[in-house]
Model the fold of this input.
Amino acid sequence: MLDRNAIAGLEVVVTGSSSGIGAAIAGRLLALGCVVHGFDVAPAIHAGPRFHATMVDLTDRAQTNAAARACPHADALVHAAGLMRVGNLGTLDDAAGELMWRLHVDAATSLADALVPSMVERGRGRVVLIGSRVAQGMPGRGQYAATKAALVALARSWARESAPKGVTINVVSPAATATAMLDDPARAASEPRMPPLGRLIEPAEVAEIVAFLLSPAAAAITGQDIAVCGGASLPP
Done:
């Protein structure tokens, strides 16, 4: 388990901080002594002097840019906000695809564009994007998979730009995780696949990997897509 002193005092922007994986990440970082700026469209579930809630619709570029500009000293960005819409070819919903793209990809782009340059100037920083094992492809989830695959491409490209400046950029890609997203009626047509591990991934397990990637010990890890999948990415 990560030593509390490893990242204490870091100022971290965490999107999706009011539910699911984002909430677990925000909670873990607070427990490790970080200052957390929680970006979410939903009311905050965390509190305390080191937690600063910002209600923001991350699908709105102007709101996202304004929220990012209010955190000019952020040491790290964790983009965990997400949703899933499903559909097979012949029944695809253009609006749903656009919504996922705006939240997963456009928001990541706006946030990184606003926050990473100051990290580069200071010679240190961390970015972690929450992807998905589904980025490898899965029936009925093509639009969702495309947005998560795009995060990997962005991270690898940005990592190459920023590595010489002390900024690392990675993706953490969980398999089916025990969050409320599994109960979303909008994904009822596509049941989660149980990993070979025999259980769902816990949000806290994802949060622990993210916390490690923010630490000095992870300084040499960049441009990677790290699977937290319980064996789901292994060949059958």
Observations:
- The first helix runs from residue 20 to 31.
- The beta strands are 11-15, 35-40, 51-55, 76-79, 125-130, 167-174, 225-228.
- The two ends are 31 Å apart (CA to CA).
- The chain has five helices and seven strands.
